[in-house]
Design a protein that fits this description.
Elements (H helix, E strand, L loop, with lengths): L1 E6 L2 E7 L4 H10 L27 E19 L10 E9 L4 E8 L5 E2 L5 E8 L2 E8 L16 E22 L5 H4 L8 E7 L2 E4 L4 E3 L4 E9 L4 E3 L4 E2 L4 E2 L4 E8 L4 E3 L3 E4 L7 E10 L9 E12 L7 E5 L3 E5 L3 E9 L1 E8 L5 E3 L5 E5 L4 E10 L3 E12 L5 E6 L5 E4 L2 E9 L1 E8 L4 E3 L4 E6 L4 E10 L3 E12 L5 E6 L5 E4 L2 E9 L1 E8 L4 E3 L4 E6 L4 E10 L4 E11 L5 E6 L3 E6 L2 E8 L2 E8 L4 E3 L4 E6 L4 E10 L4 E3 L4 E4 L3 E9 L7 E6 L5 E6 L3 E8 L6 E10 L5 E11 L2
Parallel strand pairs: 21-28, 29-36, 37-44, 45-52, 54-60
Antiparallel strand pairs: 1-2, 3-9, 4-8, 4-9, 5-6, 5-9, 7-8, 10-20, 11-19, 12-18, 13-17, 13-20, 14-19, 15-17, 16-17, 21-24, 22-23, 22-25, 25-27, 26-28, 29-32, 30-31, 30-33, 33-35, 34-36, 37-40, 38-39, 38-41, 41-43, 42-44, 45-48, 46-47, 46-49, 49-51, 50-52, 53-55, 55-58, 56-57, 56-59, 59-60
């Protein structure tokens, strides 16, 4: 049977196995694991049973290869093999999240030969499109020790479930590592660990702190995508240097600690060098040093620290690996001496029921060769608890639905008027329970009882309660605002007599039956009650309920009536009255008009009349409108008509002769004396004053060269300044 390992289209390893009979069937069945086949004998006879090294763990060989693709990531230790018995750490990197199906090692002989060492997966981490897996094989064999023959170089490869576009492998071989894998690999706090993250600035990548046994190897590796600059932790030694291709970059470090402690390898990746930042992965593991050939032993000390109010007096039992027991005090320790180095299970038992172990139990601990491992247990023992049940039985005419029960300073609980409630997990011992009931109820024997709560049990405090129909009080409270607040209002409860309450104050209706009542607050019409004047309230038995009212009272408006009486002649049908320059109404010359809903206080009213009319006392008046009332403003108006003038009929006159003008007038108001003016039409006038109405005569001489006509205008003005006029034409002739 011929097998081949392929990567990127190339044959990296080929081997042929010729077997017959049952063995052939076995090899065929196991060949799918890529870990079986004819194994060459070691070229170094007499290989020791232990990989002990007096110098401790040292780096033997390392190699790195990136920019691989396909389903196989593989690399050989060319130009020189590591030593037989070394431990090999193989870390694989690839883009994507596909899994590794198997890890194998081969020799580059012709035909290529599988070696068959077992590689254990210790950590796998993936994030942000990049994956990293680390495998460990201890006490590797079946290859030429430190050989340099190109056809006998040891190569390690990983088969992937799917092809990858980019990947690689870092191999390192270590001398002095414990042969047995289960004992070589750190456990517990020293177990391998990984972490991942992302960043856009210089970012610290760290798998986290890991416990290290004396002389153990700490191996750390980190990978990123995309490639950026990196600084590694100077407390570690870099393995070969970082590797990089176009898609990813990696770096490996190690340290060998002379004594037990912890380590946390860290890298600073400069993600600020690429747009958008990148993703990092990090893994750390420890490998213990090999023993000298003599089975290694160490000591294991188990400690107990106990706190609480009721500590278990007889201590506990600590059991090693399920077989070996020792007693340990409640606050003390027990030591198992000379036990084999490696992983052990420790359990604590014999813990009292009132105690709890807060530490993990059992615990797995790694005992170092020649050293002492410690496992610690924290125990808390509380005083045992019990329960207290409060039981109530009620009678009477006014039983409430429930009461309140209180135990010591614990939160209160509600208990039905006939029912029970339980206070759980009370400390065993004496407690005081109080039943709180309404004022109309009485508790037989008193509301307070002292009871003893048994550890792990329940005690009952029983109460018998009698509740009668009780009375209570209702307080009416008022708060008032506004511009016209009265001194008081009237409050009425149901059909009870009303009581007076101050506009801002209180009044109490006492000894009302417990239950629902209706209270009404009666306020003046200029006041309004927020939420309404009627409220329904429940009066508690033995207590007081308050009905609160908020009242706003404004000043009531008033009215203004304007009246007019007119006399004289030429009186119009109406005038106009205006209040405060904004509200106008028409009023009959003898009549009235009312302005309603005016704000109480001072206002100005003006009566507007024609120019021939005068207002006695003036047209503008200032008046005070009373709140809720009416004020009247009275005006007397006199209207004047101008005199009626008659100049007489048209006439003729002779030039140079005295012409006599006969005219007359009447005045409906008889508003004399009167003045008159006669315009003769030739540029001359005559004027005078008369004290009565009637007919009058005035003379004038016209002098002309040619006949012509003149228009005479007679104007009469009364004492009030009203004027009337009339004209006539006089034709003047020559002699």
């Amino acid at each position: 049977m011929t097998r081949e390992l392929h990567s990127e289209g190339r044959v990296l390893a080929k081997w042929t196995t010729r077997v017959t009979g049952p063995l052939a069937a076995v090899l065929l069945a196991t060949s799918c694991t890529e870990s079986v086949g004819p194994r060459p004998k070691s070229s170094s006879p007499g290989v020791p049973l232990f990989s002990y090294s007096a110098s401790g763990i040292t780096l033997d060989k390392d190699i790195l290869s990136l920019s691989q693709r396909g389903r196989l990531l593989i690399k050989g230790f060319n130009p020189q093999n590591p030593h037989v018995g070394d431990a090999i750490i193989a870390t694989f990197y690839w883009l994507g999240t596909t899994n590794i199906d198997s890890v194998v090692d081969v020799l580059t002989s012709s035909p290529y030969t599988p070696v068959g060492n077992t590689y254990h997966l210790v950590q796998y981490v993936t994030a942000g499109g990049i994956s990293m897996a680390t495998y460990v094989a201890t006490n590797v064999r079946n290859f030429p020790d430190a050989g340099t023959d190109p056809s006998q170089i040891l190569a390690v490869g990983a088969y992937l479930s799917d092809s990858v576009a980019d990947g690689g492998i870092r191999l390192s071989a270590w001398t002095g590592v414990e042969d047995v894998f289960a004992q070589a690999l750190g456990s517990g706090a020293g177990a391998p660990r990984s972490a991942s993250g992302a960043g856009t600035t210089p970012t610290v990548a760290s798998p986290g702190s890991i416990a290290v046994s004396p002389g153990a190897l700490v191996y750390g590796v980190s990978a990123v995508t995309p490639p950026v600059g990196v600084d590694y932790d100077p407390a570690f030694t870099e393995i070969r240097g970082s590797g990089s291709d176009g898609s990813l970059k990696e770096d490996g470090v190690y340290a060998v600690l002379p004594s037990s402690g912890s380590a946390n390898p860290q890298w600073t990746w400069y993600f600020n060098q690429v747009p958008g930042g990148g993703t990092w992965l990090a893994t750390a593991l420890t490998l213990n040093a090999g023993s000298s050939g003599v089975p290694a032993t160490g000591d294991l000390t188990a400690t107990a620290a106990t706190s609480g109010s009721s500590i278990d007096p007889d201590g506990y039992v600590v059991t090693l690996d399920g077989t070996s027991n020792q007693s340990v005090p409640t606050n003390g320790s027990a030591t198992f001496a000379g036990i084999p180095a490696g992983s052990h299970s420790v359990a604590l038992s014999g813990v009292a029921a009132n105690c709890t172990v807060s530490s993990p139990n059992p615990q797995t601990v790694n005992v170092p060769a020649g050293g002492t491992a410690t496992v610690a247990y924290s125990v808390n023992c509380d005083t045992p608890t019990g329960n207290l049940t409060v039981s109530t039985t009620s009678s009477g005419s006014s039983i409430p639905t429930s009461y309140t029960a209180t135990v010591d300073a614990n939160p209160s609980q509600t208990v039905a008027s006939t029912g029970t409630v339980t206070f759980s997990n009370l400390s065993a011992g004496s407690h005081t329970v109080v039943l709180s009931v309404p004022a109309n109820c009485t508790v037989s024997g008193g509301a307070s009882q002292t009871v003893t709560v048994p550890a792990g049990g329940t005690v009952t405090a029983s109460y018998t309660v009698n509740c009668i129909t009780g009375t209570g009080n209702l307080t009416v409270s008022t708060t008032s605002g506004g511009s016209s607040i009265p001194s008081s209002y009237t409050a009425t409860v149901d059909a009870n007599p009303s009581q007076t309450v101050a506009s801002t104050g209180t009044v109490t209706f006492s000894n009302l039956s417990a239950g629902s009542h209706t209270v009404v607050l009666n306020v003046p019409t200029n006041c309004t009650v927020s939420g309404g004047a009627s409220q329904t309230v429940t009066v508690p038995a033995g207590g007081t309920v308050t009905a609160s009212y908020t009242v706003n009272c404004i000043t009531p408006p008033g009215n203004m009536t304007v009246t007019t009486s007119s006399s004289g002649a030429n009186i119009p049908s109406s005038y106009t009255a205006t209040v405060d320059g904004s509200q106008s109404k028409t009023i009959a010359s003898t009549g009235s008009v009312t302005f309603t809903a005016l704000a109480a206080g001072s206002h100005t009213v003006v009566l507007n009349v024609p120019t021939n009319c005068t207002v006695s006392g003036g047209a503008s008046r200032s008046v005070t409108v009373p709140s809720g009332g009416t004020v009247t403003v009275s005006y007397s108006v006199n209207c004047n008509a101008p005199p009626v003038v008659n100049a007489g009929p048209d006439e003729t006159a002779l030039t140079g002769a005295l012409y006599a003008l006969h005219w007359s007038f009447t005045d409906a108001n008889h508003n004399g004396p009167w003045s008159y003016t006669i315009n003769w039409g030739d540029g001359s006038t005559s004027s005078g004053t008369v004290s009565s109405e009637g007919s009058f005569s005035n003379g004038h001489t016209y002098v002309i060269i040619l006949p012509r006509s003149f228009t005479i205008r007679v104007t009469v003005t009364d004492t009030a300044g009203a004027a009337g006029s009339d004209t006539k034409v006089v034709s003047v002739l020559l002699l």
